[in-house]
Write a structure and sequence with these properties.
It is found in: Cell inner membrane. By secondary structure, the protein is α+β, with helices and mostly antiparallel strands. The protein contains three helices and seven strands; from the N terminus they run ααβββββββα.
């Protein structure tokens, strides 16, 4: 009887680990809908929790296209969620693009970005700020 219970527990543990490893990102997004801001609009989601893609993410008047990520599962052993994120096309002058390595500490809830690159047009930046004088600027930052 103990042997059967042990085998069932090992099976359930293995099933839980396999389910967590292969869980689709769309299911995780559906489960977290309640904790996301209402102004956040998310496009089509594909891939797994560990490596995936979102066609577009929009928050208020900022839009990021083609958001991709890769998570490093080994960092979870030390209490760190680590990975890479990319968004947009660096060649498209009219959209925001960038990439970064990131680390989020699960213990003290601190976040860190490394090798971060962010590209956007001056026009997009001017929409986000209010200046006391009218300014006409063009270009890419």
């Amino acid at each position: 009887m103990k042997k059967i219970i042990s085998l069932v527990l090992v099976f359930l543990l293995a099933f839980g680990v396999f389910a967590a490893i292969s869980m689709p990102a769309s299911i995780v997004l559906q489960l977290s809908q309640g904790s996301l801001p209402r102004a956040l609009a998310i496009g089509a989601v594909s891939g797994s929790v560990w490596e995936g893609r979102i066609s577009e993410v929009r928050y208020e008047n900022v839009q990021l296209n083609d958001v991709t990520w890769q998570l490093n599962g080994w960092g979870l052993l030390t209490g760190q969620l680590q990975g890479k994120v990319r968004f947009g096309s660096p060649r498209a002058l009219d959209e925001i693009s960038g990439s970064s390595n990131f680390s989020v500490s699960l213990l003290d809830q601190a976040a860190q970005l490394d090798d971060a690159t962010l590209r956007f047009s001056v026009e997009q930046a001017m929409q986000q700020v209010t200046l006391p004088l009218p300014v006409d600027a063009k270009g890419r930052v």
